[in-house]
Design goal:
Strand order of the largest sheet: 1-2
Largest sheet: 2 strands, antiparallel
Number of strands: 4
Low-confidence stretches: 108-125, 220-224, 618-651
Radius of gyration: 30 Å
Shape: globular
Strand content: under 5%
Number of helices: 24
Helix content: 55-70%
């Protein structure tokens, strides 16, 4: 029987002549319609739909014996788990916890892999790209506290990897999970939509309640409240205009007045001891309804509204949102010439300098360039004017903001003009400018002459801003000193002292003063007074970071004990504030608690190793570690470092290389 000829192979159709693509987008696939395979495809583009394609899935093939072996292993492991944890509910909770930890590790590893082509260390000004909890990566400059905190996390992770091997009692789980998972990240809610309630835009609170909330933002007849470091415009006139309108006027026809009024109320609720966060969101929702589409049509009257909305978002843990609103207020102020001397009234002048001070504060907080250069500003500083508060508070605040902006520019720079190791000259010049500012303070701004009961909140906040400026200027060499001190505890090397130890003392002294001022601020608060603002908590948090690290420089001194008490006090106050619904203080208290726990563990290990007179690794051995890799050296420093939770693996040479780099860092 003759065999049939083989079937002819089908002619391969070129891709450009095919009737259908190999993979359609999700929208076309669901609707069973033709897709051209482009991004976006023609159908989705015509229908204004999102055009998403399924992610490619990697297929693997294994042999049947390997598959059967894996199934038997899974069955055996499940049986062992059931024996160890008899309760089904407890088993499910344990499995879920392990899955969450694995997911967080995978996310950090993917982030590290994605950023492999661009190392944040390549940014010569010390800035870095940090991810928020939702995975969005943002640039954070070297002057930012978030960048400084990330350096602390790197320090903690390196030391933690070493301590796990030299001390069996080291609490790895509690500390590594807290810091390892957050390396390369920072806390903000800017990627999340603010959940706003459904509100009646024309609803008004009782007049007396509105006056009580807005009184701290207005000019007060109380002499204790005459020191004002901000100017919010004619807030009290808004109350008069809304609650007691002139005959024949309709408040519904003036949306910007109602928007500014509700924005002021939203901001005021964050600093009030009675108001709830929910009421603040209601006021914010009403303000945004009346604001409409501000990028299309704005006037001078929008400036105050933008300014207040930015301050509110800062208190809601949304720094980028606050940055945008305050920049919009500054853009409008420049548009209408508030930055020029000609035809600028005293009220407009004060409003501009308030924007200037807040912009410089947020620019330093995020490590980003300021709104405009000082050379482009010709408007004079505030002066005394009838019907307005005393100008000294705002004037001094603006002068301090200018000094801080110039210090950040010289020390950290923008666009690659700074350095991770700032020059001593720039630091000393900035400290001299700050000292000169303090020496020229009027007598009424001298804190030593004020008691707790007579201290204005704005006065205390101004001095906290001054001390925080010293921290910004000196905390980089301070961290260098801490790292060198710790490295010397583990490595035999020549004792190297700082050429300018006064910088370190100034940094820790400023942190101690800010903690005392924060305590004084809270003691001065009553049920009728303003509560501590978000920026006050920010200053207290950063001061506590410095005080906790300072304990490593002199663990056995009285200062270390005092610093411990002050840090614990700050943690307690942050936890107390978080109970009022503040996400920012909740994150700060968590970070500070975990760092404090690590410092306690590190001091305990250092004390134990000192009592045992443990032989340290010599500098020469560390330098020869990679080249020699001998059995004798491995016996002396047998550190089998594995990947800690959330951090990349650190080899032995990596840890020792870090120690050596800390010892060799430039001595200021």
């Amino acid at each position: 029987m003759e065999r049939l000829p083989p079937n002819r192979r089908r002619h391969k159709v070129p891709a450009e002549r095919r009737k259908r693509v190999a993979k359609a987008c999700d929208a076309c696939h669901i609707r069973r319609i033709k897709c051209n395979g482009q991004k976006p495809c023609a159908t989705c583009q015509a229908s204004s739909r999102e055009c998403d394609y399924p992610s490619p899935q990697e297929r693997i093939s294994i042999s049947r014996p390997i598959f059967d072996s894996m199934m038997r292993s899974e069955k055996l492991l499940r049986s062992c788990l059931a024996t160890l944890v008899p309760s089904p509910q407890a088993r499910l909770q344990l499995i879920e916890k392990v899955r969450e930890n694995e997911a967080s590790v995978r996310m950090v590893e993917e982030t590290a892999t994605a950023s492999a082509d661009f190392d944040s260390e390549d940014l010569i000004d010390g800035g870095r790209f940090l991810s928020d909890p939702d995975g969005q990566s943002r640039f954070i400059g070297g002057a930012s506290g978030a960048a400084f905190l990330d350096q602390i996390r790197q320090f903690v992770i390196c030391i933690s990897a070493f301590l796990r091997e030299v001390d069996e009692g080291y609490q790895r789980v509690l500390i590594d999970e807290a810091f390892g998972n957050l390396l390369g990240m920072y806390q903000t809610h800017d990627s999340r939509l603010l959940e706003l309630p459904q509100v009646d835009p024309y609803h008004l609170p009782p007049c007396e309640e509105a006056k009580r909330l807005l009184l701290p933002l207005c000019t007060s007849s109380n002499t204790n409240d005459q020191i004002k470091i901000y100017f919010w415009g004619p807030i009290i006139e808004l109350v008069q205009e809304i609650y007691y309108p002139a005959p024949g006027t309709d408040r519904r026809l003036d949306p910007i007045t109602l928007a500014t009024f509700n924005a002021a109320l939203a901001f005021a609720t964050q600093q009030d001891t009675i108001a709830t966060p929910e009421s603040g969101r209601e006021y914010y929702a009403r303000a945004t309804i009346f604001l409409g589409r501000p990028l299309e049509a704005t006037t001078k009257r929008h400036i105050t509204c933008f300014l207040l909305l930015g301050c509110y978002l800062f208190g809601e843990h949304r720094r980028d949102g606050a940055y945008s609103y305050i920049r919009m207020a500054g853009h409008l102020a420049v548009t209408y010439g508030f930055h020029q001397s000609q035809a600028t009234g005293e009220g407009q002048k004060r409003l501009f300098w308030t924007i200037y001070a807040l912009d410089r504060s947020l620019s330093g907080l995020l490590g980003r360039p300021p709104m405009m250069n000082d050379e482009d500003i010709s408007v004079a500083l505030p002066v005394a004017s009838p019907g307005l508060p005393d100008p000294d508070g705002l004037r001094l605040h603006a002068e301090l903001a200018k000094i801080v902006g110039q210090a950040v520019e010289r020390i950290y720079g923008y666009g690659g003009r700074g350095s991770r190791t700032p020059e001593l000259t720039n630091i000393l010049d900035s400290l001299d400018a700050l000292e000169k500012w303090k020496d020229n303070l009027p007598q009424s701004f001298d804190l030593s002459a004020c008691s707790i009961s007579t201290s204005s909140r704005d006065l205390l906040s101004l001095h906290m801003t001054y001390n925080h400026a010293i921290l910004i200027v000196t905390r980089q060499p301070f961290l260098l000193a801490v790292r060198r001190k710790v490295a010397q505890s583990f490595v035999n090397s020549d004792e190297r002292t700082l050429a300018n130890e006064a910088l370190i003392n100034q940094c820790s002294a400023a942190a101690e003063r800010n903690t005392q001022l924060f305590c004084q601020l809270l003691e001065a608060n009553t049920a009728d007074a303003m509560y501590a603002s978000t920026i006050d908590y920010h200053h207290a948090f950063n001061a506590a970071l410095i005080l906790d690290l300072a304990r490593l420089l002199n663990p056995n001194g009285m200062t270390a004990l005092q610093s411990k008490v002050q840090v614990q006090f700050t943690i307690t106050m942050l936890e107390k504030a978080s109970q009022r619904g503040s996400a920012y203080t909740e994150d700060c208290s968590s970070v500070l608690t975990n760092l404090h726990r690590f410092i306690e563990e590190l001091l305990r290990v250092l004390s134990r190793l000192g009592d045992l007179k443990t032989v340290k690794v010599t500098e020469r051995q560390l330098l020869a570690f990679d080249a020699m890799n001998s059995d004798d050296l491995e016996d002396q420093v047998d550190v089998q470092v594995t990947s800690i939770t959330g951090a990349l693996p650190m080899a032995q040479s990596d840890i020792f290389g870090e120690f050596m780099s800390w010892l060799d860092e430039a001595i200021l």
